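Hi everyone,

Forwarding the result from last night's run.
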Amino acid sequence: QAAGIVSRPRGEMAPNAEGLSGAMEEGVVDVREVEGAKCFVLDTESMVRPRHVEKDVQYRLLRLENGLEAFLLSDPETDKSAAAVDVRVGYLSDPQDLPGLAHFTEHMLFYSSEKYPKEDEYSKFISEHGGFCNAFTSAEDTNYHFDVNSGDFAEALDRFAQFFVAPLISKDGVGREINAVNSENSKNLNSDVWRNMQLWRHLSKPDHAFHKFGTGSIDTLSRMPKEKGKDTHEEMLSFYSGNYSANLMKLAVYSRLPLDEIEHLVASKFSKVKTLNKAADVFPEDPFHPTDHQRLMVRAVPIRNVHALDLQFLIPPEDEVYRYTPCHYLSH
C-alpha cells in the first residue's frame, strides 16, 4: 500500500468490479482502490516508447471506474508538472442553429467551479505559480491543458479537475465569454489560413457536419439565438451535461512525483467526474460529393500580398493506422 492505494495481486478479482468475472479483465494487469474508488491499471507492453531517452521516465496507464483513461508519466528530473484532458466532442457536434457552442463551452469552463467559486481562480493560480494554461476546440475534440511549478502541482490539478467535476458555468460570464469568442473570430478574419479553412468547409455538403462554422461569433451565439427565442446559457448547459462524459475523456499527467503518488492524485480527483457511458459522435459520410464538390478550381483573394497554389486530395481517415503515419510518408 502506497499513497493511499490498495493494490490487488494480478489475477485476483476485485469485489463487485465491473467487467471482471473471476479473473482479471483482458488488458488489466492490476486493480487498485483509491479512497473507495476502483482504479484499473492497464497493460502498456505494446506501447511505443520514445527512442534514445536518457531520463529515467516511468509510465503507467489507468482506467478509472467511471471510464476515464489516464496516462501517467513520472520524470524525477523535471521542474515543471503538466496535465491535459481531451474530451471527445468538438464543433462538429454543435447544434445546427448554434454554431460555435462547443467553443463557447470551452471558454465558460474557465470561469469558476463549485469548489473554487472565485472568478478565474484556476487561471490566476496557474499564472501566479510559474505556469501556463490554455484550451482549444477542434472538429471532434476539445482539449484543456496547463503546466505549473512542480511544488504546486497537486493544488493546480485539483482546480483543473473541477472543470469536469462541478463547474459553476455562471450566467454572469456569458456576455464576457461571447465577446472573447467574437474577438477570436475577428482576429481569424484577417488570417488567410482561417479564411481558406472556412472556404473549404463552405464547399462541402451543406447538410454535413463539416460544413459548420466552428469558431462562433456574437451573431451566432447572441443575436441569432435571441431572435429564435433561445437562451445560449441554457443551450450550453445542455451541451455540457450531454457530452462531457468521463468515458469520453483522456487525461495525461506529467510530474516528478512517483507513479503511485500521481495515481493517487488522479484517482482521488477525477473519479468524481460523472459518466454517461455514451458513444462518441461519429461522422462517417464523406463531406464532399464526388461530382458536386470535387474536381473544382476555386480562386480566392488573400489578405496578404501573396500567390499560392493549394491542392486538396481526399484520403481515408488515419485513425486505424495512426501508428504508421502514412500522411507523413506522402508529404515527403
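Residues 6-22 have pLDDT under 50 and may be disordered.

Cheers,
N.
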